[in-house]
Amino acid sequence: MAAYFFAQPVDVDIRLEGEEERKQFDYKTEKDLRQSCPIYYDGESVQGQITIRVRDGKRIAHDGIKVEFVGSIDASTPPGAELFYDRGHHQEFLSLTQELSAPAEMRQAQTFDFHFKNVEKQYESYHGINVKLRYFLRVTISRRLADVTKEKDLWVHSFRMPPDINNSIKMEVGIEDCLHIEFEYNKSKYHLKDVIVGKIYFLLVRIKIKHMELSIIRRETTGAPPNQYNESETITKFEIMDGAPVRGETIPIRLFLGGFDLTPTFRDVNKKFSTRYYLNLVLIDEENRRYFKQQSSKEITIFRIPEN
């Protein structure tokens, strides 16, 4: 699309009102490049100006100009998953349109105001492994042979109230006559800048443990049953013990979430995808064997609260 656009005799510039004063969100694009865009919230108006400039003193005829505010979910098919994955790749769950100009001939630069008032943005923006939830403005200049389009992204954050009930996590895992531990985390629901506090109790140790690590795993689920695909990625590995523990020893845990690339937990967003987080405790012995990789994995809920 980009190569085609630059072949057109016009430049399109989309400017959001107060964009420079807004907080910016920095994210990774498909080619591992970084891109920033302004942050908006549910219920906020989206307004600004669109300037269209004709190139090289030319004039163009068009069949109308419009601007749309779009919310879309784009899902890609993972390699090798084509047989069982739901191939509903693109869905626009929000589409608002304003007409900027009737059919006319353009000889010089023109500027148009747009205003989408109090827009409901029911989902938070998300760029994952196989799915992207985007909000963007799209300007379309309708022409007889081919339309000219330009898009500008913005990022949406959604706040949630802290839960009234936030139970701790307690669990026992072990290998008969070899190893038995209990672990406890202070709660099961955390905000994005929270701290995970916990303890690990060694009740039986007959294995030469070298070290222990706590991982945060993000699991992205795309599609809907029975055509679902799961993909997991490790957000961080945090070493909480180096050396062999002894029976009766207690290891404290304190993990600050603010420094990691986390999103809130998303559950069944528009029946297209979910994103869940798990705390995974792993012990490694002197022969590099790993214990409790699955048994000690516990789901936690992550949510966003307003920042001070």
From TrEMBL:
Coiled-coil ranges from the UniProt annotation: none
Transmembrane segments: none
PANTHER family, alphabetized: VACUOLAR PROTEIN SORTING 26 RELATED (PTHR12233)
Top-level taxonomic group: Eukaryota
InterPro entries: Arrestin-like_C (IPR014752), Vps26-related (IPR028934)
Lineage: Eukaryota, Fungi, Dikarya, Basidiomycota, Agaricomycotina
Species of provenance: Exidia glandulosa HHB12029
One GO process term, biological-process aspect: intracellular protein transport
Protein name in the entry: Vacuolar protein sorting-associated protein 26
Record-stated family: Belongs to the VPS26 family.
